[in-house]
Amino acid sequence: MAYQMIEVEPVTPRIGAIIHGADLTRPVSDESFQDIHDAFMAHLVVFFRDQPMSPEQHLSLGRRLGELHIHPAAPYCHGNPALMKIHTDEHSRRNNGEGWHSDVSADVEPPMASILHLHQTPKHGGDTLFANMYEAYDALSEPVRELLGSLTALHASDYSGFYGDHAPQRESPRAEHPVVRTHPVTRRPALFVNGGFTRRILGLTRAESDSILQMLFDHVKNPNFHCRFQWQPHSVAMWDNRCTQHMAVWDYYPETRSGIRVTVKGDRPFR
Q1: Model confidence over 238-259: pLDDT tens digits?
Q2: Cα 231 from Cα 144, distance rounded (Å)
Q3: Angstrom distances, CA of residue 24 to CA of 58, 216, 224, 229
Q4: Would strands 45-48 and 17-20 be described as parallel, antiparallel, or unpaired?
Q5: Checking DSSP bridges between strand 80-88 and strand 76-77, what pairing results, if any?
Q6: Which parts of 97-213 are beta strand (E)?
Q7: Which residues are catalytic, by number?
Q8: Does the pTM of the predicted model rise above 0.85?
Q9: Which of 34, 44, 46, 72 has the fewest CB atoms within 10 Å around its CB?
């Protein structure tokens, strides 16, 4: 495998980088992949342009990060549950990834990474926003950080009818996770609650839990924590679910946005 010299172009100082010089349609050497992984850890989400990967190459890229994760309920492509179908068109009732969330955080061991490859994009719109959960945690006052550091939250999902007639791969998950988790690689604390899956904070009254969660959900929306990626055909985004949230904007109806996501297993969050 030939070494591919990459160039890392930050999207913002706080989150996101475009990687130039990497060809994901060819075998990536260990040295080149380490450079990509270093950029991934530093920038939390990395983007690649003009990568006409095959499904097999997409799967291989995911396996470089770890064992592949199977979504509890989403439709998939090419007969392989690891190839999650991402598709929205004029007939869709909902958009994949709308609302701020971390992928499948209701799993006991939530995914550590997601890799999305879009094949078809609308003429305008269809961007994805990403938020830095290290920065979201750091921006809280010290008394609030102290309070959150001892709390645990319930994450749950109900996929009944969520993907139309597609039968779920497994039952809707439920798990309890720390409100603030420690990233296993960087060792940095990150806020780990999201509007998509976090239902309540354990040990608090419903009113207390609802108030704190709503405050945190609103806090995550601060654009100072964000970057925005404008998709093109055969762009790839790889994000770290342990320290980011994301939201896909559905501003392109009735046009089509279509691709495949490969997701990588993670470990159980810890304080």
Answers
A1: 999 999 999 999 999 999 999 9
A2: 36
A3: 8, 37, 31, 19
A4: parallel
A5: antiparallel
A6: 113-120, 128-132, 152-156, 174-178, 180-182, 189-191, 198-201
A7: 101, 103, 246, 261
A8: yes
A9: 34
